[in-house]
Amino acid sequence: MNRIVRALFNYLVRGALVILPIAAALFFIYWAVSKLDSALNLSDVIWVDQTGKPIYIPGLGILSVVVILIVVGIVVTNFVTDPIKKWFGSWFKRLPVFNVIYTSFKDLTEAFVGDDKKFNEPVVVEVNETGLKKIGFLTQKDLSKIGYPGEVAVYFPLSYSFAGQLCIVNADRVKPLKMSASEAMKFIVSGGVSNIP
Q: Rounded to the nearest 10 degrees, what angle do helices 60-78 and 2-40 cross at?
């Protein structure tokens, strides 16, 4: 009887190891998409049925955002020139609170998907004399403008999180990693448990 219970428990654990990561990833994607869709979906405001009750159309919020992004991309690519972009950028920078929020989000999105990607140089940094090392991404190679010549800026993402830390370290403590940026990010975010390619 003990052997059967142990075998069933072993199967339970092995099944959980396969199912739980898949279920957690699917649940997170479903939760994020449904929250985004419900926040952006205006179908229940626009359409009502014959009795006057609002009609909610699932997926319309995300579809409308995708269509808006495509239309804006077409307009910006084909009709908006660099002087117009610079004029809008300088106008946005004059607004006190909006300036901080706008430039922060603009720099962050451009760091991931823009022409000037920032998180593409994974590095390992020796943090102290005991040999402790951290994996991060080199974001600035010259900090002499802010009074730190010979030092660099390294962003350290946190494991199991979308947050991170930016640290300024001596350039001689930073060494490049022999892995791609996506492999390094996956390794960091997984807490170091994902397989090293």
A: 60
- Stated pTM of the model: 0.47
Rounded CA-CA distance 172/150 in Å is 8
Evaluate whether 55 touches 43 at the Cβ level (below 8 Å).
yes
Strands (E), the chain: 122-126, 133-140, 151-157, 164-170, 174-176
Name the one residue in this structure whose structure tokens are 């991060």: 136
Measure the CA angle with vertex 115, ends 109 and 121; round to 5°: 80
Question: How many C-beta atoms surround the C-beta of residue 111 within 10 A?
Answer: 16
For residue 126, is pLDDT > 60? yes
Distance separating alpha carbons of residues 44 and 58, to the nearest angstrom: 10
Token pair 């077409």 is found at: 74
* Between 70 and 65, the higher pLDDT residue: 70
Whether residue 193 is predicted with pLDDT greater than 60 in this model: the reply is no
Rounded-to-integer distance, Cα 122 and Cα 174, Å: 10
Res 49 pLDDT > 80: no
Q: How far is CA 93 from CA 47, 84, 90, 177, in A?
A: 39, 14, 5, 37
